């Protein structure tokens, strides 16, 4: 846990996952990325799925950033991605803090890839039929343009979206759509940053209302290894935009001391970085 006023922030590991190392590092050759990765016989690297929990006790606000892969998986499909979902990770983390899932006031949907927000819904009764929201009392924040893209994806990224994860959000009255490139925030101590390199209109919460800030890097910098500018995922829609967006994050981390939190690093929930914008290094791992 770390305090970034007015929030206390926790990183929750909601599961393990394995994705193809070549896809995760794009043009970087295996002889380089295998040194920093745990690679299996299928060429897949070890990753986690992480959500952030940000609590502002005085405002009675409990914010969950992303919801993990969720529970709507057949064993066969889960095996393809080496998924080991811990269905109790979020409830257990809340219980330790004297809270329950009903206390979550806000869900930040960074983007609708299944490994980030499969946990928005679960099957209501029978698999492949109706879904029910996992956090029915929370306000769900998602960018309108991203939501539109997820409902009509490109051939390149269609496999990353599972309609049952978010179909019911379209008609839910507890959804708030962010608009434009610089959406304003109505949440005290939270501002929004919007990126486009990985997927159109991914939203990144920036926590803190003082000098100290923490940004959830989402899939612009999914792991520590991706801090290096050319280490860009083949999944990205606009890789050169991702590189420019990484430069912006690295600048904030090095020059302004922002803390960086990651969604997929299996060792670090977040870090403080040092070095240069083009060659950042981890100065300290955060105990998130
Ligand atoms: Zn993604």
Q: How would you sum up this structure in a few lines?
A:
By secondary structure, the chain is α+β, with helices and mostly antiparallel strands.
What keywords describe this structure?
alpha+beta; six-stranded mixed sheet; 7 helices; binds zinc ion; 30% strand; globular; Metallo-beta-lactamase, Chain A; 288 residues
Question: How would you characterize the overall build of this protein?
Answer:
It is a single chain. The protein is α+β, with helices and mostly antiparallel strands and 288 residues long. It has one domain: Ribonuclease Z/Hydroxyacylglutathione hydrolase-like (Metallo-beta-lactamase, Chain A, 4-Layer Sandwich), CATH 3.60.15.10. 18% of the residues lie in helices and 30% in strands. The chain contains seven helices and 16 strands. The chain has helices spanning 21-25, 30-33, 75-80, 89-96, 114-117, 144-151, 239-255, and strands at 2-4, 7-20, 44-56, 61-65, 84-85, 106-108, 121-123, 131-133, 139-143, 175-178, 190-195, 202-207, 214-216, 259-261, 270-275, 280-285. Strands 1, 2, 3, 4, 5, 6, 9 and 10 form an eight-stranded mixed beta sheet that branches. Strands 11-12-13-14-15-16 form a six-stranded mixed beta sheet, covered by helices on one side. A hairpin with an 8-residue loop joins strand 14 (259-261) and strand 15. It is globular. The model has no long low-confidence stretch (mean pLDDT 95). It binds zinc ion (ZN). Zinc ion binds at residues 111, 113, 116, 198-199, 219.
